[in-house]
Write a structure and sequence with these properties.
The complex is a heterodimer.
Chain A (H helix, E strand, L loop, with lengths): L1 H31 L6 H19 L1 H22 L9 H23 L14 E4 L2 E4 H23 L1 H11 L1 H6 L4 H24 L10 H5 L2 H8 L4 H20 L11 H16 L14
Chain B lengths: L5 E10 L2 E11 L4 E5 L6 H9 L7 E10 L2 E2 L5 H6 L2 E4 L11 H9 L6 H14 L1 H5 L10 H13 L5 E5 L7 H16 L3 E6 L2 H7 L2 E6 L2 E7 H6 L1 H6 L31
Parallel strand pairs in B: 3-8, 3-9, 6-7, 7-8
Antiparallel strand pairs in B: 1-2, 1-4, 4-5, 9-10
Helix pairs in contact in B: 3-6
The chains are: A mainly alpha, B alpha/beta.
């Protein structure tokens, strides 16, 4: 039972981090109808900046610069690449983002090499023990931070002019333009927000028990894709639920791996995709989505 | 030239190789209601898109001609700048943001306007005065409103930007006759409060009742233009758009089976 609770808590924590990534994915899709395959490399870029700078300017400042840097990078991608293709076929744009991803990833891999950058976070490898259940401090911090950021994001999405503009563009770009909403700004801000959120996620993907940021970190980020898709690509609620589902599934599947040997090894890494496939079989538009993936 | 009048001069628009408008000129003097009539594919919506600068969403471009509002060229601005200049379009088919609440729809309408919170609040008050139902349903999703209510919301949303000129694309489309009449009444009221209106309509009876002058488009060209009452009295318009046959017998509007006398003055619109 203790194991189960521990796994569940770990899963919820990692799920909240996936939700951060999925949220950035969804916000870009809603604002621009682009499936952003460069999201994982945005995440790696933000994490890399944070990891490199933390020795010189301290952890917190490095994180702020990392978030700002990834936001800027996202905005740059939008401004230099995506904007040129606006109005074109969205599947073309999705492929363009694959190209951007390859370029970014190549450069980051060259810089990172085989290094592992510890994040230098204040939580270290401390473990919180409550009634026999132990959870690493980093997992608690991840859950709380991600929860707060997601709450703030959803409130902003619901209440601010930025949120109203983004939702209007998501529903009908041309009509939004008729209201005087600047589509370029909405799209730019969505990419920037996605970059910022991804950096926070990068931090929590690379702290204890993970040794640190390495070139493979973006692979871990890929698990947030099934989260976004099973939640429904155009739903913020879906990103949230999808993230948690994937996190818990992965955590439980990894934890009980020894009982699941008939499925072969490494089921924990596979489970997110299995869950996604099962959900899509029943609900092709995802749990909360309104548009089917054929749209992509 | 500081009066807030719209002048469309010899505007030609193409969607790729397809000509949609050829040298169309329309004037909307300050404070007037001007109607644009014509069948499907005549270029009515294209004309509005040219003014609101949303042609690019459909792959269209202005080939030649000029569009000025209050002495300022509109045909080089972005859609947002056109809204800021005081020209706001209500799109065909209403296009309310169905997943957003009525209140958020109105908020979206105010995003492109100049001025701050206080002016937006005043605009909302005026919209609620004009359409009390929008205040009652403020927190409902716009998609749950009836067709007539959605049309009211679409118009209210546009009014949130405090336009000096309102472009209305088929406001009566798909509405019950009673509701269409109510919308017409509201258009008159909006105009009485000082907003000029460029009204695109297939329902010529309503349009000619509201407008002071009208333009008839056929296959992208101005076929007739003049004061609304003169047009309403002209045989051609009566037969084609008001559904009144020459012999006095009522014929259904715009159907292909209506009797066509020899040598019609106007070409028939396609589709």
């Amino acid at each position: 039972m203790t194991t189960f609770v521990e796994l569940l808590l770990n899963g919820l924590s990692i799920g909240a981090v996936y939700a951060l990534i999925a949220l950035g994915f969804v916000i870009v899709f809603r604002a621009t109808e682009v499936v952003n395959f460069a999201h994982a490399s945005l995440l790696l870029a933000g994490g890399y900046v944070t990891a490199v700078l933390r020795d010189d300017i301290g952890f917190l400042a490095a994180l702020v610069v990392g978030v700002a840097g990834a936001a800027l990078l996202g905005a740059l991608i939008e401004f230099l690449v995506i904007r040129r293709y606006r109005g074109r076929d969205h599947s073309v744009l999705a492929i363009v983002t694959i190209g951007v991803d390859i370029v970014l990833l190549a450069e980051l891999t060259r810089r990172i090499g085989s290094n592992v950058y510890p994040m230098g976070d204040p939580w270290g490898d401390g473990v919180l023990t409550l009634g026999g259940v132990s959870v690493p401090h980093t997992r608690v911090a991840a859950f709380v931070t991600a929860g707060l950021i997601i709450a703030a994001f959803l409130l902003a999405f619901r209440l601010t002019s930025w949120g109203v503009a983004t939702r209007a563009v998501a529903e009908h770009p041309e009509t939004a333009a008729l209201m005087g909403i600047r589509l370029g700004r909405v799209s730019l801000s969505a990419w920037a927000v996605a970059g910022g959120l991804a950096t926070v996620a990068a931090l929590f993907l690379t702290v204890f028990p993970t040794p640190g940021l390495e070139r493979g970190t973006s692979l871990a980020a890929l698990k947030a894709f099934p989260a976004a898709i099973l939640g429904g690509l155009d739903s913020t609620t879906g990103a949230l639920v999808g993230g948690l589902v994937i996190g818990v599934t992965q955590s439980l599947a990894t934890g009980y791996q020894s009982d699941l040997t008939f499925l072969g090894r490494g089921i924990g890494d596979l489970a997110p995709y299995l869950v996604m496939l099962l959900v899509l079989l029943v609900r092709p538009a995802g749990l909360f989505g309104t548009r089917e993936l054929a749209r992509v | 030239m500081t009066a807030a009048s719209l002048e469309v001069r010899e505007v030609s628009v193409g969607y790729g190789p397809v000509r949609a408008l050829s040298a169309v000129s329309v004037d909307v003097p300050e404070g007037a209601v001007v109607a644009v009539l014509g069948g499907n594919g005549a270029g009515k919506t294209t004309l509005l898109r040219a003014v609101s600068r949303t042609l690019s969403f459909h792959g269209g471009t202005i080939g030649s001609g000029s569009i000025t509002f209050a002495g300022r060229r509109l045909d080089r601005l972005t859609p947002a700048q056109v809204v800021a200049a005081g020209v706001v379009q209500v799109p065909e088919g209403r296009q309310v943001f169905a997943r957003m609440t009525v209140a958020d729809n109105l908020r979206a309408g105010a995003l492109g306007a100049r001025g701050g919170r206080r002016e937006a609040a005043r605009a909302r008050e005026r919209v609620h005065e004009l359409f009390p139902v929008l205040a009652d349903r403020a927190h409902q999703r716009a998609g749950l409103l009836s067709g007539g209510e959605q049309q009211m919301l679409a118009m209210g949303r546009a009014l949130m930007a405090r336009p000096r000129l309102l472009l209305l694309d088929e406001p009566s489309l798909g509405l019950a006759p009673l509701m269409a009449d109510r919308i017409a009444e509201t258009v008159r009221e909006i105009n009485a409060r000082g907003t000029s209106v460029l009204l695109v309509e297939q329902n010529a009876a309503i349009a000619l009742r509201l407008a002071s002058s009208a333009v008839v488009l056929e296959v992208g060209e101005v076929a007739l233009a003049g004061p609304a009452d003169e047009l309403a009295a002209s045989d051609e318009v009566r037969r084609r758009y008001l559904g009144i046959a020459d012999d006095g017998a009522a014929a259904p509007e715009g159907t292909a089976v209506e009797p066509v006398p020899a040598a019609p003055v106007l070409r028939r619109w396609s589709a």
